[in-house]
Amino acid sequence: MRLFVLHHAGGSHLPYRHWPAGLPDTWDVRLLDAPGHGFLLDLPPITDAGRLAEFLLDGIEAELTCPYALFGHSMGALVAYEIARRAARRGLPPPVWIGVSARTAPQPAGPAEPYHELPDAELRSRLNLLGGTPDGIFDDPELWSVFEPVIRADLRLVEEWRPAPGAGPLPVALSAYAGAGDAHASPARMAGWAGHTERFLGLRVLDGGHFYFQDDPGPLLRQIERDATAALDAAGAARPS
């Protein structure tokens, strides 16, 4: 199976770089970067979730030659959802499984206080509390000047995203992952993903906050392996012989 991992807002593939070693040797794990991040740092950020999903799907379309799955954390979760929708629209094979982490289920309205519009000092303070951003970025004015526009663009993408009107449940197995102490995407709010898939494999709650896997990704990776393998096995059993 080929697993595509999609990063959080303001991030890149780097925090996930050790994940391939923690997943089965038989999996081909691909860590994706959005424009303006990681290996694609020189490209302008994309501030619309649908356009970002189209960009990433264009990049992986030639690699959808075997069963594949998508895992996204925070911003990456909603982009994984959009990629699955667009794959179906293009007549491409659907993923056998999607893992959505630390991003609440699609909502009809955005947040009352968008992060991407906060004053500079308050934005840095909120992001620092949320975790996931290296401290050096907040402490170094030159680094902050480089990353602030990218972070604000990502937050705008997340906060302005809405599911397409009338979008029905995805015909794809889906698991939701939440940090027990995540006030931003609480387990109760993550449970709402059950209504957006025809095959909900369950809500997995792990110790920690929004970046619950940051110190030790092992428990999450073992759960990803169990869930994705179950979905892959079910897809194989359903395939006509």
Structure notes:
With about 240 residues, this protein is an alpha/beta fold. About 40% of the residues lie in helices and about 15% in strands. It has eight helices and six strands. Strand 3, helix 3 and strand 4 form a beta-alpha-beta unit. Helix 2 packs across helix 3. The chain starts with a strand and ends with a helix. The model has no long low-confidence stretch (mean pLDDT about 90).
How would you summarize the topology of this molecule?
Blueprint: E1 2-6, H1 19-22, E2 28-32, H2 49-60, E3 68-73, H3 75-89, E4 97-101, H4 120-130, H5 135-139, H6 141-160, E5 170-179, H7 187-190, E6 197-206, H8 218-238
Parallel strand pairs: 1-2, 1-3, 3-4, 4-5, 5-6
Summarize the structure.
The chain has 241 residues and is α/β, with parallel strands linked by helices. The protein has a six-stranded parallel beta sheet with strand order 2-1-3-4-5-6, sandwiched between helices.
